[in-house]
Amino acid sequence: MSVSVLYAGGGTLLFFIGLHALLVYPHLLRKILAANIMGSGVFMVFVALGARSSDGVTDPVPQAMVLTGIVVSLCFTAVALVLAVRIHRLTGCTTFVQDQEAAGD
Amino acid sequence: MTDAILQQPWFLWLTLIPLGAAILAFVLPRQAHLVGFATALILPFCALLAVRQGTLPHQLFLNAGGWDAPLGIALRNDGLALVMLAVTAGVGFIISCYATAYFSARRHKPDRPHYFWPLWLFLWGGCNALFISGDLFNLYVTLELVTLASVALIALEGGNKALNAALRYLFIGLIGSLAYLLGVAILYGTYATVDLGLLGDALTNTRLNHVAMALMVSGLILKSALFPMHFWLPQAHAMAPAPVSALLSALIVKTTFIVLLRLWFMVFPALDLVVTGQILGLLGSGAIIWGSLMALRQERLKLLIAYSTVAQIGYLFLVFPLARGDAAAAAWTGCVLLILAHACGKAAMFLVAGTIHHTAGHDRISQLAGAGGPVGVLVVVFALAAVTIIGLPPSGGFFAKWLLLSAALATGQWFYLLVILGGSLLSAAYIVRVLSWAFLDVKRSHYPVIPWVMKWPPLLLAVISLLFGLIAHQPLQLALIDAPVAGRVMLEISHAR
Asked: Based on the domain organization, do B250 and B317 belong to the same domain?
């Protein structure tokens, strides 16, 4: 088993650990961190598979894609943090409102 | 002169103009509505020119920056992209007209109109970029553009419930797109390209490709709210201001579906997809039945319309089991036509719901009893828009369902026949439920006057959706340009004796 496949496997593992945490933990900050771990896992798979070329030269395209992906995930984290802070200010809660009833005016 | 105009890459301008205008609207918050309205006025013309170009013999691809496919970014302007660009421009324009009136009528409410315009223009540009993207990674980036802008639009109202719905939508979007991206990484690792056409040629029926396909498909069905992943949609769509609800339900849920449609017919045909197609079809059937039943139970008009969207998304997913052999073209055109018809009808319904909410001060269905007066007119507009959702002739919804039905008959899949007809019956039931309350004879108090811009755009959309079936020929022809399906649109159903 080559090193890059090991890294790709590790990235996939990170993706699922993050997914588990995102679904299980109610705290919003933990969810945001978990989403970042998921993203890092995917990026690791990208870079690891890009390094695996026959002539020993690393393929630069996945790295460019990962850079774009990092920018996207940064934007997402920023928006999620703003929303979470706002929810905390309005309600004092750091979790989602659980009741599903329709909002009154 | 005309040659010079037709030489312009208009489908590209449809992406660049709204993105530029979004920045302008953000920098000039006081003139934001003017910038927004001017852009909304220009884009339908660009879309018309793009469609005109599309009907002429034209170059299917535009390589951004002059780089060729494996390394560069290929932009496609095939029939599907053109149809979606055109419907987004048309429906987007009418919703923009409505939004100018809606936000000025609710100036005292915390809707923050000066944020609406930059976000909506940004969303518009993102959608158009998604429709013309020809590679997997570009599709990922544009999906994220669309999700980010929609999250901000849902949060626009600023209340606790809206913020919760927005953040939930953000997490769902993130899970969906990361699952999709993981699939892209696996495909790239094997084939070293993300171009749709090149991948479609190169793919073989291996186990790793099936894993990638499963990751990408499940990510996308989560984002397009297919039953049973629909739980986030009704809250997110019903919490937003009316123009935003209309945008999200009519146009934005379709963006992820378009990605799925492209993947299914362009990248994955080499895989053995019969079982996956049947699973998607069954989930779609579940969505039709469950969404309609939930719509029947809702007390509030906006939630009812949102659940109706869940059901209509289910119809779209029937294309995957039905597009088989000779019936492929019929299912494909039926699906595209349903996207168009639903975009017009659902936008009209949400806009009317917004006007009713504005006029009556609430949108509880039971209190629409004896609506009469100005609200009575609105309920009639609602009924007109609902004709296409139920699928009665001559609406676009009727022809779309007819094509899907004929595909179901031609491929001998009787189960879907029952689902399509049963879904129509259920949707008729929840629409009539709204109407039955409104026509009760109860004396009502005085209602405020409705500005005409809040009445006419929904009526226009409703009439378009009602008569869409009569002009369905042109969009169908357009949708078949460079379509990745074969077969005849009008199927002859042979009597097997």
From this structure: no
